[in-house]
Structure formats: C-alpha cells, structure tokens
Amino acid sequence: MLFPALLLLALSSVVGSKECPHHCLCYEHSDLVDCRARGFLQVPHGLSHGTWLLDLGGNLLMEVRSRAFAGLWSLRVLVLSDSGIQLLQPEAFYSLSFLEKLDMSRNKLRRLPSDFSHSLSSVRELRLDHNTLERLEVSSLEHLESLEKLDLSHNHITFLQPGAFRGLSRLRHLYLHANQLGAVRHGSLSMLPVLEALQLGQNNITHIDTEALAPLHSLTLLGLEGNQLQHLKFKTFLSLHTAGTHLQLAGNPWNCDCDLHRVFSKLLSVRHLHVDDYHNVTCREPLQLAGASLAWVDSQLCMAETATVLVITVTVLVTVLAAVVMAEHTRKKNQRGGKSWDAESQSQER
Fold first, then answer.
1. Closest alpha carbon to 31 in 76, 70, 61, 67
2. Integer Cα distance of 212 and 222 in angstroms
3. Is 23 left (phi over 0), alpha (psi -120 to 50) or beta?
4. Is the bond into 113 cis (omega within 30 degrees of 0)?
5. What pTM, to 2 d.p., does this model score?
6. Does the entry feature the keyword Signal, yes or no (predicted)?
7. What's 30-67 look like in SS3?
8. What residues form DSSP beta bridges with 208?
9. Side-chain-side CA neighbours of residue 132 (13 Å)
10. 3-class secondary structure, 248
11. Which residues share a beta bridge with 198?
C-alpha cells in the first residue's frame, strides 16, 4: 500500500482554504493532508475534522499518544510508516471507527497493546511489516472484524498462539514471511474461513502439525519456501479441502529419501494441489545428492528399497519352494516305505 506524492498532486496541487497544520500540505476538496518527513515529534494539531487521508510517514514520532487522532471521524487512510514508533499508548486510535487502511510499516514496535484493535473495526488493510514484533497477543487483533489483508512480514515472531487470529473472519491475505516461526501448530490458523493466501516463507519452520491447515477451506496459495523442512506428511496437505491450492516448497533442506519421493508423488497426483516450484526443489541430504533437483532423482530414490524388497521376496519364494519340494520328497519316500513294509508283512504271513 503506497501513498506517493503523485497521488496527492493528481487530485489537486492548490493549497486549500481549510485549516491546515503548520509545515503540512493540504489539498482543497480532497481533504488529503500530507505531513510526510516534516520532523514531527507527535501527531500535529489543527487537522480538519473532514480529513480522510493523513500521511505522517517519515517523521520522528517515537510513540502514538492516547487519543492522538480524536475527532478525526472522517479519516479513511492513515500512514504512520517509517516514523521510529516504539510505543502505542492505550486508546491510541480512539475515534477512528471508519478508518479503512492503516500503514505502520518500518517502525520499531515490539508488541501491540491489548486494546490495539478496539477502535479499528472498519480497517480492511493493515500493514505492520518491518517492525520488531516478537509475538501476537490473542486480544490484540480480535476486533479487526473487517480486515481483509494483514501484513506481518519481516518481524521477529517466533510463535503463533492458538486463536491469535480469532475474529478475523473476513481475512483473505495473511503475510507472515521473514519471521522466526519454528512450527505451524494445530489451532494457530483456526477461524480463518475465507483465507486465500498464506505466506510463511523465509521462516525456520521444521514441522507442520497434520491438522494445522485443516481449517483453511478457501486457501489458494501456501508459501513455505525458504524454511527448514526436511520431510513432509502427505496427510498435512490432504486436509486442505479446497478447489485448488498452489504450494511453494523450494529452498528447504530436503532429505531426499524414498519417503519424500512418495509424498511428492502423491502431491503431484492430487488434482486440487499444485506444487508450483517442484523443479526448483533440491536435495540437501544425502550428501551424494546435495544440490540435485528432486525432479531429476525422484525415480531413483526407491530403487535400493525396491531391490531389497525384491531380494527378500525372492528369498522367501525360494524358501517356500524348497520346503514344498522337501515335503513332497518326504511324502513320496514315506509312501515307498509304506509299500515295502506292506509287501514284507504279506510275505511273512504266507
């Protein structure tokens, strides 16, 4: 979400007659207020109550004080990016009940207050990327009932609590790439019925619970590239009951063995699953296959196992056949012995 000066200039370049904060540019009829990179240490006073776009990006705010935007009931777009924000005080967004887009990217936020979403029920797009968030409190996002796009990429999030996204029933795009997630746990992605795109690339994910993806009935894109996955369970993706889901799995340290071959063979055979980057999936282990494309070697991965199975099968067949031959030989020998004994008995009786 970008709000360049070109947008403002395209609408009007004439300074309006309405009240305008000192050092800012205000545009007539459009109610757009450009306060970008003006050295502000706090949200400026004197903003028109009719303002619907306020750009405060590139300032030195450090924090957003309580009720800093009080009275701006008409505000629809608020840009606070790249402003060194470390703290949001309680009720920081008080009175912004009609806000639709909020950009807080490229700041220094380590946490979101528990009341972060209380006045943001109309927000459809929220950018929190390129901060230093370490975790998400369950209560921080629960009132974002209109949210459709949430960008949490390039943070330090290590764990998703069960129910972290509860209340986001309209969320369609969730970006969590370039964090420090180690696993995708069952319950962490629940209550996201219309989620279409989930980006989890460039994390440290080594494990995905079998039922973790099951609630995502509308998922069309799942990005898992650049993690630490060595193996997968086919059931994990079989739980995706969607019309079609595209998977991105390259850039992981795959252990290319027969089990992995079977999983990918099944994934490629399921009509509603599509591995977009299959030819870029490469092996890390075993060492003799390091760097090789799985698509080139997959047909050979089960050859040793197949050979072993064949050897065992042949051995068993030979053993069974030998036992049958021995049994038949013994039976015939016994029959001949019985006939000789009968002949001798008859001779003695005479």
1. 76
2. 13
3. left
4. no
5. 0.82
6. yes
7. CCEEECCCCCCCCCCCCCCCCCCEEECCCCCCCEECCC
8. 184
9. 9
10. strand
11. 174, 222
